[in-house]
Specification:
103 residues, 6 strands, globular
């Protein structure tokens, strides 16, 4: 199933989770596993550079991750957030929860 799941790389203190190009229902099991692993690190960078398709289930998963990270004192940052993700987040009214960077 290579290419359907998020890719993860770790720095010294930061976990990097690359969101898949097609970040919809079929990719969420792999993404969920990557996000759970990221909660073990002090910080995480969510890289959405390649993401061109997003559904509401993916946004809800990211919001749940963001809440869990915040509750456990983990820092979450974003890289490469494009319009498809921004539009899906706005549709659900989760801009404050996800704390996407300014455009």
């Amino acid at each position: 199933m290579a290419g359907k799941h998020a890719k993860t790389s770790a720095g010294d203190n930061e976990q990097r989770v690359q969101l898949p190009e097609d970040c919809r229902m079929a990719a969420l099991a792999g993404l969920r596993d990557e996000l759970i692993a990221a909660l073990e690190r002090p910080s995480c960078m969510l890289d959405a550079t390649a993401t061109i398709k997003v559904d509401t289930a993916a946004v809800q998963l990211l919001a749940a991750f963001r809440r869990a990270a915040s509750a456990s004192g983990r820092k979450v940052s974003w890289h490469g957030v494009g319009e498809p993700l921004r539009e899906a987040v706005a549709l659900l009214g989760l801009e404050q929860t996800l704390e996407l960077p300014a455009t």
